Amino acid sequence: MEGSSVTLTCSSDANPAANYTWYKENRTLLQGPEGVYRLSSISSGDSGVYSCKSENQYGFNSTSLHLDVQYAPKPPSVSVSSSGEIMEGSSVTLTCSSDANPAANYTWYKRSGDKQVQRKASGQNFTITDITAEHGGSYQCEAQNTHGRSNNTLHLTVVAVLPASALIGSAAAVFLTVTLLSVFLLIRKKRNAHQSADPGDRLDHSEQRLPNQSEENCDLNYASVHFMKRETDPVYSNVGSAEPSEHKEAEEVTYASVNFNRSAPRTRGQDTGEDPAALYSTVKKPPAV
What we know:
alpha+beta, 4-stranded antiparallel beta sheet, 1 helix
């Protein structure tokens, strides 16, 4: 048993007395007149084949033995055949392995929390076919021999597979959401563009109405036009002030009305001055009677 003390003894009938040498797998352990080799607190690594050689000046002889060190199972290693996520409908194999002497027997349990709930299988390998979500959980492997037992646990996660109808429904919902969002953004963009264009439109309309407003608010002004006697059909662009002329008061004068368009209303104090924006018409003197 592991942990115990072991003494190996070698003896031979020889004359003169023989010398002894102990080997383990061709490695020299002890050499001397006594054929005794002691191992204290033996371990599993001390298992193997030991040989003893006895020798004197006339020759040698040797013998061997197998040292079997037994021990309880070491903590087992557990693994699953499938790497990554385990999908519903697939098959997996759970494997358990432990160092033990004599060889261990294996038992699989499915655990819930800290309690064993069900013995599932015996043997080093445990295969689950057509796996479902109910197979998910913790599985414990227990290794046992005549000297003791040991165990280890793995967790099995099973991923549910959505039916095709659910996948189609999810895709349709995503497509509908994206479409509605795109329509909303497009409407909002057009609305913003329309609102930004309204002030300009109102400005254009107001500018188009300005001439009519100017015509309604325009002042009626008269200009005094002087005519030279020597010319029969003169055209004048020279206009004097509205004061009466002394030497032409007797002549008959035709007046023309002139409309003035102003960008802004006239203020008080400007009525007495000349308007540089005045427009004058061509006036013809009627023939004398």
